[in-house]
Amino acid sequence: MSLPPGFLDELRNRVPISRIVGRKVTWDLKRSNQAKGDWWAPCPFHGEKTASFHVDDQKGFYYCFGCHAKGDALTFLREAEGMGFMDAVAAMASEAGLPMPERSPREQAQTDRRTQLVEVMDRALRWFRLQLQTGAGAEARDYLAGRGLDGLALERFEIGFAPDLRQGLLRHLAESGVPEKLAVEAGLAAKPDDGGAAYDRFRGRIIFPIRDARGRCISFGGRAMDPNARAKYLNGPETALFDKGRNLFNLGPARAAVSKGQPLVVAEGYMDVIALALAGFEGAVAPLGTAITEDQLRLMWRVSPEPIITLDGDTAGQRAAMRLIDMALPLAGPGQALRFALMPGGQDPDDLIRSGGVGATRAVLDQAQPLVELLWRRETEGRVFDSPERRAALDRAIEAAVARIPDPATREHYTRELKNRRWALFAPARTPKGRFARRDAPPPPLPQTRASALVALDAGDLLIEAMVLAICAAHPHLVPLVESRLERLEPADPDRAALVHDLLAGTSSAAGRAALDSIMGDPHVRSAPAISRPSGAADTAEPMLLNALDRIESRRAARDELARAETEIEGMADEGLTWRVTQSARARIMADQPAIGGGDDLGEDREALAARLSRALSDEIWRKRR
């Protein structure tokens, strides 16, 4: 709907923002100045006891000094009440006593259709709840009782049951005057593509209603009673009411609980949320059958500035955490943080509550770790930094991750925190006699690193790249392990680029085969144990591949650093000084490279380079002589 010019301004002028906000907060009258329209209260968007939420009637805006929520009256209705924009405008218009502009016939038809769909969903919910009380629902009732859900819990969460009938709900809706087309449009029934009769989407399942922030039933989730069912959990499809990537299960009650000081706890599924809420953690929500989306993350932050993500302690839970890190970093900033609660022993929250009780669950939530902790663990856990290349690869990975944070202050704090952790990992350790041992130097190379054919070769960049491609071709099971690192190779040779694509996609092209034939023609590559006898070198292939990729990434980082140094120094000193500092930087990079065949990659004397660097530092060549 298009609004007349000045309509929104008229609404804001007629309705003080404090009137809208005052329905959700309790004003701190000692701090507020009512005569001037200056109001203070505890923030409704995050749990707190102090009045850090400020509302200014003269300016028409609110701002929280704690979670940094801000906006006008319309924004508040959208964020606090879960309204859409036009619904918020309608609420403001009603408050102001102004009639809403007439909608176009098309807009009115869409609104009427959504209203019809909500009515159909309410009819279906009543039918599902009734079926749970019938003889057909006895097994479902027994299952729910075994999960600790009594009658009050079933009532609170409006749990129902869909009998294993092909058209049970459809017949009920038809008898109520609901056309089949509307049932299909609501996602309650499915129509075969071949034109056959429509059938119930949910059959033989326990039913959980999904409500939006305004409390409207917009879809259902169903848990199969048959252990052999193709899908244990089934959600309704996308409809005019339901977008599963933009909603959360139990959002409305959780928002109310968070406003009273409860933490926002994000679990994986319906039963986890119900178990948490019944145990007293009422700010529990869950995504709807998918991994957390960016829209859901933003929705969480509108409820709480620091949601706690509960992760199952299994491998899948860990992978989900790592994916969430990459999504959250570009959005991170003040009032938009995450903490991660790692469930013990492969349990989920429901398991933990039943086995350890409320106390054990609270302890896990209280020990939730910040996002920076998981980022550090992802980059360091299970890895050995026994060479300069591997440590440089760590630095590069951390820098790339932190660079994605848009807020400068948050980025600076991440940088400082990760530098401290790096120092703790590599810093000198005090010996029993009080002296410092050199822990900043890498530990001795692992046996498989020393045995790598790369150590015995005068390996330039192209040869290392060739070795990576040859190992991946000989051991294709290693490709998924290094998939993201292979994508960053970007070979200059087009045939090698084609080979990279073939390895990642599992295809075979003429250019890729030509590149592999050329690589295998190199005696250094052909004679490497991981290539010449791949079946007998399975244990050494992986460390050799990782070492090669570490070296490629380290050299690339070193070249980038040198280029930046040359750019930054240009114009700051005379040509002689620029040349001397550049040479020192080159010498340092060369000295950092591990010895290969007794010398450096360019055939230069490493000791001479190191001595040149030492003299340059001693002479402080960057200082101008007087």
Automatic annotation (TrEMBL):
Domain Toprim per the UniProt entry, residue ranges: 262-344
Cofactor: record remark: Binds 1 zinc ion per monomer.
Cellular component annotations (GO), alphabetically ordered: cytoplasm; DNA-directed RNA polymerase complex; primosome complex
UniProtKB keywords: DNA replication, DNA-binding, DNA-directed RNA polymerase, Magnesium, Metal-binding, Nucleotidyltransferase, Primosome, Transcription, Transferase, Zinc, Zinc-finger
Single annotated GO MF: zinc ion binding
GO term, biological process aspect, one: DNA replication, synthesis of primer
Zinc finger boundaries on the chain: CHC2-type: 43-67
Matches recorded under CDD domains: TOPRIM_DnaG_primases (cd03364)
Alphabetical list of PANTHER family matching this protein: DNA PRIMASE
Function recorded in the entry: RNA polymerase that catalyzes the synthesis of short RNA molecules used as primers for DNA polymerase during DNA replication.
Protein name in UniProt: DNA primase
